[in-house]
């Protein structure tokens, strides 16, 4: 099974930054399209960032464009979302996701594995 483990979430003041990591295991030496999603209470799940298998292409929701970045270190099999200039409305549970099937990579892709989530609270 593919396992995804998020770490680095927490509570920050508005305007602050968080560098989160998402480590993948269970498919050693394999790289796939990966996404960074969030869900706030009472809200639908929202894809906020994505990155192609090789890291050459990134994708961002309009709500976070210019503030969030995502990169990956395939040697470490880890993705690093960087969330800058955080706002209270960014408060949510954030999830790492991976798409193992097909070639397409976008925030609308059919991600089939999900991490346990990490809470981000901005005040």
Features:
mainly beta; seven-stranded mixed beta sheet; five-stranded antiparallel beta sheet
Specify the helix fraction band.
Answer: under 10%
Provide the gyration radius in Å. 13 Å
Average the pLDDT over all residues and give the rounded result. Answer: 93
Q: What's the total count of β strands?
A: 12
Structure characterization notes:
The structure is a single chain. The protein has 123 residues and is mostly beta strands. The protein has no helices and twelve strands. Strands 2, 5, 6, 7, 10, 11 and 12 form a seven-stranded mixed sheet that branches. Strands 1, 3, 4, 8 and 9 form a five-stranded antiparallel sheet that branches. The radius of gyration is 13 Å and the shape is globular. The N and C termini lie far apart (37 Å).
Quick take:
The protein is mainly β.
């Amino acid at each position: 099974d593919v396992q995804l483990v998020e770490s680095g979430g927490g509570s920050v003041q508005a305007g602050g930054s968080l560098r989160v990591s998402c480590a993948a295991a269970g498919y050693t030496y394999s790289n796939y399209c990966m996404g960074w999603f969030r869900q706030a209470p009472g809200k639908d799940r929202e894809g906020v960032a994505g990155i192609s298998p090789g890291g050459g292409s990134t994708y961002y929701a309009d709500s976070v464009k210019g503030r969030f970045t995502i990169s990956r270190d395939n040697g470490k099999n880890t993705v690093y979302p960087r969330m800058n200039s955080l706002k209270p409305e960014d408060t949510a549970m954030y999830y790492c996701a991976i798409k193992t099937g097909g070639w397409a990579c976008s925030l609308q892709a059919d991600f089939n594995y999900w991490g346990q989530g990490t809470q981000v609270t901005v005040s």
